[in-house]
Protein 1
Amino acid sequence: MHVLHTLRRAGAVLLLAAATLYAAPAHPAAADEPGWTAEPAAGAAATVRPYFYLAGAAGTVLEDRLALANTTDQERTVTLRGADAYNTADGAFAVRPAAPAARATGATGAGSWISFGAATTVKVPPRTRAVVPFTLTVPPASPPGDHPAAVIATEGGHEVGVRVHLRVGGPALAALTVEDVAVRGRGSAAVIAYTLVNRGNVALVPDLRISAEALIGEVSDPPRGRTLPVELLPGQRVELTEPWPGAPALDRVRVTLTVTAPGGARAVATGSRWLVPRGPAGWTGAGLLGLGAATAAALHLVRGRRRTLPGPDPDPDPDPDAPPEAGPTTPAPHHELTGAAR
């Protein structure tokens, strides 16, 4: 029975994972039922692909196919194009709007490398599925790493995007930094704000760990580590926040963020802030905290001065080979050494 239960549980997990992958933003599932869909054409093994994955060296031409399915009783006219992909300020995946003028001026994003040839506009008959080939030409001088893009299909004001994961051959560098760490808000509304920057050439899914400490009391319910729901694209910067409902109401806190990602990427940054309630109670608490900090500093200074005050030199140990003193004697004259050794 235990084995059967384990198998059922594993099957449920696989079904949930498949459903999540199918419903993820990377999958071009049509919203608002437009009557047509766009997705990568099935490969030789008839496998369903949630996105395009292409890899090759700089200067190569890569090929793939897009499938358009018309499920209605009327003909559909779909326009196709490539688009550059980027992260929004909050980390979401987005594509840039059509900009023929930008391409004409020499745009170098991977979206401009995608071409449908003469099939930029496709008429799909009713109840028909059309497969449209396209090419992606990697320029000879393209740097190695990930170049995010998307294939965009538009019809009647409805737009569907299919992600394109392009990896150009060469050294892969996973590197990131965490910046602008700050504690904002008070009480249960407190949050830890920070900025992540992808300094490498591959997309990253970072893990975050936060540790916190307070000047006076103990920090209750510190934030826990987790995998961030963000795919940080190369060269992109995102601003994120983490809730901190257990932040102290009156204290000086310091938070340390450690961010890691596959490939050896790691970054650490800290931020601190006085957390003081609003109103008269807050001013009173701030005054008490300031008085306590000043007292602690004064005590530390006094103790330091006591440790550094000069005292009398201890008596030198008597020489065991010296003859015993016969009584009071006239002290020997003191010779001051003022020159170099002779």
Note: The chain has two domains: 24-168, 176-280.
Protein 2
Amino acid sequence: MTRFRTRLRRGLASATATAALLTAACASTTADDPDSVRIGLLVSLSGTYATVGEDMQRGIRLYLDSHGGRLGGRRVDLVVGDEGDGPATAVPAAQKLLERDRVVALTGLVGGATVDKVQILTTERKVPLLGANARPAFTPVGGKPRDLAYTWHTSYNSDEPGIAIAEYVRSQVGDGAVYAIGPDYQGGWDELRGFTDTFTRLGGKLANPDGKTLFTPFPATQNFLPYLNMAAKTKPKAVYTFYAGAAAVAFVRQYAQSDLKDVPLYAAGFLTEGSVLTAQGSAATGIRNVLNYSPTLGNAANQDFVARWSARHAIQPTTFAMASYDAAAVLDRALSGVDGEVTGPKLNTAIGNVGRVVSPRGDWQFEPVEHRPVQRWYLREVKPDGPVLSNVLVQDLTTLPAS
């Protein structure tokens, strides 16, 4: 018994020492090493939007590698977590990044529902959330509007693509009606609401029998033919939609096989963005869509971005990669303005002082209240660009005003 107790005491002492070493290791890139910072990247590494998450990770790593692995002169330890298909996976991953890894900023986040939940955590801990994709209409907490002081996005509000293209679609269909269809989750609700609210306010009519968007199960189905053939019975002049990732591939392929195949299709640009366009092939030709970026933009920042990207990847750069690249650019400038140890509050203040960002999409800056980009939106069309299909710039659409 005495020998057992001795071994037990030694084991406990060893475990305590190991825990202390692990704790020190977690802190070594912050207070113990002022020349290094930990940044959390939370993106979909699995699930429906894994291709989106992959592009976002590629974008931030491209910026880091182009700048010697440093932001604001500090070495960066990029800690990656898996968002999966939404909050059930994302919230525990975010908690790990914030509590165990003790990141000084969190970026990435593919889905709006993820942002809605994770934003509560980052605000409580006074850690800047620098989202690089969907941004929802935040639900109130305890009946009170969200505190957005620590919430920033280099992407867009999720309703903005639909708002930006609605007037153009209205001009194309005249007195004809448009059928609205999208996925039944936060991102789909926001994306379709932006279009339908603006389109009907401008005098447009929806072909949907009840005047409301048809929402398809998410992520339960990628069999869209029954919904598409049902929509065809309303004889719409055009269709407007939002899908992304694997669902976008299935939707576009099946649209080309459905009774709607000769009806013009308009969309938020995620429908044909990145690797999904390669998978869609000729079925995507002619789709007109709206986004805040096109790889064919002629500004100098985009030419440099495309050249760096093309040296690494066979596909063209996407808005997902560009927004993550810009998130790194924002952190680069913000960290250069932080003296001494980097804390969440100090970094957040520095993000607010970044000012105009020179970007592949064109110059932009944060809107002062919502902390979203004030930026230009573009109409694009899927057509051949040399040997490959691309989202080719057709025209500028609008710059949505600040609040």
Note: Residues 1-31 have pLDDT under 50 and may be disordered.
Protein 3
Amino acid sequence: MTDITNIDIAKATRLLNHGPTTLITSAYAGKTNIMAAAWVCALDFNPPKVTVVIDSKTYTRELMEAAGTFAINLPCVQQIEMVKQVGSISGRDLAGTDKFAEYGIETFAAKAISAPLVKGCVGWLECKIIPEPHTQNTYDLFIAEVVAAHADERVFSDGRWHFEGHDNLRTIHHIAGGVFYATGQQC
């Protein structure tokens, strides 16, 4: 095996970090926020559960812990600039406004939670946090049950993604250093 290179251990998780980039939305007491997050993973099927890593210093985390809920929005290629914008600033830095107003992000109401859902995405998961204080505080890892899910039927139906003919609706994947890729063709 001659084409193998050692990876700096500090960058080892980037080998796994090619799942879809997500937008996490949260709301509590009339305040809302949105952030980009790549460390989101399916955990269980029935009931469906997910995990998400949200740093303890984020405004999104503050709101989602207070509400006990959050939403996972799956953005697509046509939203890449917005994803970069919301991923590069804290909602706390926007005095008197929020990221939704600042960047003109349109939303619609979720069915089961208070966090808004982002228009133009191709999938949405409404999540209720399963409290695990040790895991949350030690690893910034949240476990949540999916209480409602929605998808754009042009690219997701019968339990499967099918992006053919809809290149602008392909999900995006953050690799590192501001580099993104779009979901490729089916093999």
Note: The CA atoms of residues 110 and 162 lie 24 Å apart.
Protein 4
Amino acid sequence: MPDVDRERAWLLTVDGAPQSYVDLDEPGHLEFEYVRRLAHVLDCAAGPGAALDLLHLGGGALTLPRYAAGSRPGSRQTVVEFDAGLVDLVAEHLPLAAGADVTVHAADARGWLASAPARSADVIVADVFGGSRVPAQLTSVEYAREAARVLRPGGLYAANLADGAPFGFLRSQLANFGSVFAELALIAEPGVLRGRRFGNAVLLASDAALPVAALARRCAGDAFPARVEHGEALARFVRGAGPVADADAVASPEPPEGAFSLG
């Protein structure tokens, strides 16, 4: 249910967990750490202000599409959100800014991706949770191949995931995308990477070199500092994990009680 923080700022919660924060007057204000990291990815995906074709799997209250519309004017954005009731609620209470080229579809993310034209997106952002877990249909190597098919050469895939030590789920996701894409990176708060707590991590994949240095600077200088893992350090993290087929795919792990609560 939506909960109003102040007149023009909304906090959307699902089953007591924070799902989206939107400031209608300041779309550049990003409250949640993982959203800020996804925004850093968008900032580094192309030259400043360059328009992009963006596909968002999972929409919530459209926080990131609003940010992209402001920071990259002229971008064409498609949002796929499974919850039709949420789509209607956001359209009624949280209107997009005039001129934002954002089309929202109430549909299943995997089904939409399968029917999307090849080489039609510059960036795919995946932030899909059924309750507090990533659905199994979005955790397989076949899904990773579909994402690669829809991306243009040099395109970028970014996904918000959640896991904790010993990171069986996160390592399998990196193995999936590492078997399809040439380049991988992972962005997370150091405490999460050290296994001290369950938390979000942003997986990046591309067939071209990733903007690791620029991302590392932005993430390190953020109000909520994060680390960018890549190269040999990331290879050591993934070592021993293999791709997971559709037949064996499972949802991401259930978060510990209180992991994402409002406290």
Note: The chain has a mean pLDDT of 92.
